[in-house]
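Protocol check, entry for the methods section draft. Step 1: assemble the input record (protein sequence plus ligand SMILES). Step 2: submit for complex structure prediction. Step 3: store the structure tokens unaltered in the notebook. Ligand used here: pyridoxal-5'-phosphate. Step 1 record:
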Amino acid sequence: MKVIDLRSDTVTKPSDAMRQAMCCAELGDDVLGDDPTVTKLEKYTAELFQKEAALFVPSGTMGNQICLKAHSEPGWELLCERECHIVNYEVGGPAVHSQLLVNLLTTEHGMISAELIKNSVRPLNIHCPLTKIVALENTHNRHGGTILPQDEVLKVKKVCDQFSLIYHLDGARIWNAHIATGISLAELSAPFDSISVCLSKGLGAPVGSLALGSHNFIEKCRRERKLFGGGMRQSGMLAAAGLYAIEHNLKKLQADHENAYYLAERLNRLDNFDIDLNWIQTNIVIANIVGKEDSQTVHEKLSESQIGAIPTSPTKIRFVTHLDVSKEDISEVVDRIDSIYA
Ligand SMILES: Cc1ncc(COP(=O)(O)O)c(C=O)c1O
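Step 3, stored output:
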């Protein structure tokens, strides 16, 4: 039976054409600043997002953590959403690397309202930590690939300006928000002082992320990247995969979104799952499990049927569509699940 892996959009393998692009890449030593393909990717991405500069880093985690480190001083307070990747899946990075105090704000679908941010800024007095950074995530992974409403993102920017807060975006899947809304990458990222974006999620590159921001900020990030051990030498081979991914795979995200909605809609017809289709906005489907089984049991049954998925809580299981699964594969997934529970 064919394995249909919906654990994450990180599982894609480079296509033959992408591998060809990697093989042919012009190379240099990027730590010494002369890998032409890395430079090309950084320039190209900076232009796409209309930021002054970009820095190629090995992972989204490093992108986020370097940005936080380059922005901050020990003891500063970071406001972020309770389910965000930066806090839940980056091994305590804000505390370990930057000695940040984190205030986790609860939301229903991932967007922290301007009002909640405003009410969470601590008064300037000798007893309080300095509230200095806001980090959002677009699309929001643990909320099921939800898109942040741009009008609220802009309202938060006003609060950031009012209280001199630094505004960071974990834009690992900003590409999906762009394709789903039609809002340009530049417009989506304009309010933010820094963004981290990933090439190795839906875009299908094997490795790589970029941090974006002002020239000065990115030069600070370059130092931090070296300190983190993330300086890479002939990394043009990886950058070539990233360039190929943006040029050829960005538009294909639309198909992932359609497949996710199709999956959610079909799963919802089964008695075992309940999904609010209004919140299936991009390529992530988090299904509520109905009945007595917990997510581990469901996960085991899916694994026996060669379906990859990830439990995200005792009552929820996550499926992610990507470049390497077709609509036919999704149909096959639903048929297999149907026969498990028939
Ligand atoms: C929203 C979000 N941010 C950051 C990351 C980190 O990316 P990486 O796995 O490349 O460190 C991920 C990974 O899945 C993610 O989903």
